[in-house]
Amino acid sequence: MPGYRDLARDREFRALLVAHVVSVAGDQFARVALTVHVYDRTASAGLTAMTYALTFLPDLLGGPLLSGLADRFARRPVMVAADLVRAVLLLFMAVPGLPLWALASLLVLVQFAGAPHGAARAALLPQILPDERYPMGQAVLSTVTQAAQVAGFLTGGALVAWLGAGLVLVADGLTFAVSAVLVGAFLLHRPAPRHPHVRAWPADLIGGARLVWGDRRLRALVALACVSGFYIAGEALAAPLAAQLGAGPAAVGAIFGVVSAGTAVGMVLLARLPRERGLRWMPLLSVLSCAVLLPMALTPGLGWSLVLLGLSGAASGYQLLANATFVRSVPDATRGQAFGLAVTALRVSQGVGIAAAGAAAQWWPVHHVIAATAGLGTLVAAGAAWEWKQAAGRSVPRF
């Protein structure tokens, strides 16, 4: 089995990793800066929340509409162009006195530009790491991304207080410029995927949807990924859960931290397993990611709640295998479009799950909402696991 030193020696992977981490951290800076900026100007919690939501919602359209660009053009130039577009847009967003409607419009465009970049990166990674290093590389990328998100949120507030929201937006633009330089300078040129025939955009979108929906194996992988819409309730309700336990803001950070740490550990461990063994465990782990949260119905204290959430995070590391298997199973010529559609389904499931859990927590105790959501998720995960078993012809391991 290849080791992490093999990844560290790969110049292309190093450049891709550093470029991604830099831009992810910058994005978190910008999210903090925007929420502070909008609240300072409007004193409206509703407008502030809407602005924050705009950093996620465009992905729902950008995924299916723009991810196909990663299949029509060479992927390195797509990534560089997307980074440069985002850098320029963020510089415009930093202009003092910009009307809120213009700020929101530019923000939507920034998020739209991220869709082809993400699809191109996902499609390139199996080409950069075409052997057994690929799942390890995906694990490293996912784990370091989570760390960059946490670090970006933690330091973003301090940067806004020190530099002001405008300069932080400029700094985020510079991170995309750095990413463009790294990708353009260190990634090898690869031609655009060869298509048997050139299709118009609507045909590309419909063809990608038919590919994912018509292939039982791909459909099962998307279903396994969408289980995250259920176990994410623990994170979505972190603040009210901490309040219900009589704990302070530190407990909220601990909840986010233990889930992220558990996920990172699960991904790293699974990446070390032989591919076939990991795939045999994947469906069971999807069920466990929800099932381990069922004891939350007993209203445990903070310590046991953190243990359960950490175990759920560790089991959710199966998402690494689902992601890697999906990307490897899709033909290279349609990989970007298919990945964008899968990401859209994932984001929709998470958004609906967060909204439903938040609404339910207005009426019922938070522990019970998390447990009920986990119970429903366990049933859905079992159905997705059965579908994967039928499609892949593999049995779920037993204790």
From TrEMBL:
<dbReference type="InterPro" id="IPR011701">
    <property type="entry name" value="MFS"/>
</dbReference>
<dbReference type="GO" id="GO:0022857">
    <property type="term" value="F:transmembrane transporter activity"/>
</dbReference>
<dbReference type="InterPro" id="IPR036259">
    <property type="entry name" value="MFS_trans_sf"/>
</dbReference>
<feature type="transmembrane region" description="Helical">
    <location>
        <begin position="159"/>
        <end position="188"/>
    </location>
</feature>
<feature type="transmembrane region" description="Helical">
    <location>
        <begin position="87"/>
        <end position="110"/>
    </location>
</feature>
<protein>
    <submittedName>
        <fullName>Predicted arabinose efflux permease, MFS family</fullName>
    </submittedName>
</protein>
<feature type="transmembrane region" description="Helical">
    <location>
        <begin position="338"/>
        <end position="363"/>
    </location>
</feature>
<keyword id="KW-1133">Transmembrane helix</keyword>
<dbReference type="Pfam" id="PF07690">
    <property type="entry name" value="MFS_1"/>
</dbReference>
<keyword id="KW-0472">Membrane</keyword>
<feature type="transmembrane region" description="Helical">
    <location>
        <begin position="249"/>
        <end position="271"/>
    </location>
</feature>
<feature type="transmembrane region" description="Helical">
    <location>
        <begin position="304"/>
        <end position="326"/>
    </location>
</feature>
<feature type="transmembrane region" description="Helical">
    <location>
        <begin position="15"/>
        <end position="39"/>
    </location>
</feature>
<keyword id="KW-0812">Transmembrane</keyword>
<feature type="transmembrane region" description="Helical">
    <location>
        <begin position="45"/>
        <end position="66"/>
    </location>
</feature>
<feature type="transmembrane region" description="Helical">
    <location>
        <begin position="220"/>
        <end position="243"/>
    </location>
</feature>
<dbReference type="GO" id="GO:0005886">
    <property type="term" value="C:plasma membrane"/>
</dbReference>
<feature type="transmembrane region" description="Helical">
    <location>
        <begin position="278"/>
        <end position="298"/>
    </location>
</feature>
<feature type="transmembrane region" description="Helical">
    <location>
        <begin position="369"/>
        <end position="388"/>
    </location>
</feature>
<keyword id="KW-1003">Cell membrane</keyword>
